[in-house]
Amino acid sequence: MVGVFFLIICWFRRTSLWKNKSKAQQDFEAILKSHGSLATKRYSYLEIKKMTHCFKEKLGQGGYGSVFKGKLHDKCPVAVKVLKETKGNGEEFMNEVASISKTSHVNIVTLLGYCFEGSKRALVYEFMTNGSLEKFIFQNEADLVEDNLQLSCEILHQIAVGVARGLEYLHRGCNIRIFHFDIKPHNILLDENFYPKISDFGLAKICPRNESVVSMLGARGTIGYIAPEVIYRNFGAVSHKSDVYSFGMMVLEMVGGRRNANVNVDDTSEIYFPHWIYKRLELDEDLALRSIRNEGDKERIKQMVITSLWCIQTNPAERPMMNKVVEMLEGRVETLQFPPKPYLFSPSRSPCPSSPSTLIP
């Protein structure tokens, strides 16, 4: 009798688990169907294990899971992102596959394949030799003894222009509009020549080309890069201008080589970096940044800073479109108008009404 009861319990648990997996599978297939057929290849979990040599070489790790280096059958190197099994119904995974598979641009990372097998989920990307931008701009002075990881102003400018072009494409260049909502150094990957590619579309929102405003139940993004309107809706509608804000904050960090919300000046107090750099420009003072080595560097950095300060205007309507941002970065610094002093929004000092789970660090 006990044996029969045990078999019934096992059958019930397996049936419930099958239903849950079936629901997730149905949701995924529905998303794929709603966005049309995908050219992206679907891999089995066994194939994922083979291409990563059983996950031998880890490239990085985050809240989403881990990234491993792998090789396809033709020996082409790839980066394989394996998501944690605790990601619920896999909404972010489905979102990423549906959005990034619709893109084709030199400044957007290429999704080569994916795996959706029960609770096993993985994404196969082109391999980017230099990894993320983050490791090149957030360094301690002790790490710069040989000065081999510090990017020149010319390279920083090249990266800023490339990311701007990628965002311009997402907002206006493809057959759907994609709002990324998580632009930050960690999500910018660099190839062997330091040309940038936007990655990680787990928080992206997709909408028709004729729409520019999206609705969201809660905030999404990473503290320090989130536009004010994404957290407090009375600042304005959530739109592509939210990505413009994040881009501006990121470029300021590239210029300063430090996180915007955690800068010590004269070892006296914590200063919000956009405040500090705006004041320097306002008083026409030397920016005194370690990356500046000649007059050409000064011009490039000033150009990036002025453009960034326009991008982080609190009112979304005052921020430029990304095509205008590209023009500002590629034009002459003398033609740039000095931005009005924005109400510089510091998330580190502002209470966030959204639950921590809606903010993806």
Automatic annotation (TrEMBL):
InterPro entries: Kinase-like_dom_sf, LRK10/LRL21-25-like, Prot_kinase_dom, Protein_kinase_ATP_BS, Ser-Thr/Tyr_kinase_cat_dom, Ser/Thr_kinase_AS. Residues 1-17 form the signal peptide. One of its GO terms (molecular function) is ATP binding. It comes from the Eukaryota. Keywords: ATP-binding, Glycoprotein, Kinase, Membrane, Nucleotide-binding, Serine/threonine-protein kinase, Signal, Transferase, Transmembrane, Transmembrane helix. The lineage of its organism: Eukaryota, Viridiplantae, Streptophyta, Embryophyta, Tracheophyta. Gene3D superfamilies: Phosphorylase Kinase, domain 1 (3.30.200.20), Transferase(Phosphotransferase) domain 1 (1.10.510.10). ATP binds at K81. One of its GO terms (cellular component) is membrane. This is Protein kinase domain-containing protein. It holds the Pfam family PK_Tyr_Ser-Thr. It is found in: Membrane. It is a single-pass type I membrane protein. It comes from Acacia crassicarpa (northern wattle). Residues 53-344 form the Protein kinase domain. Belongs to the protein kinase superfamily.
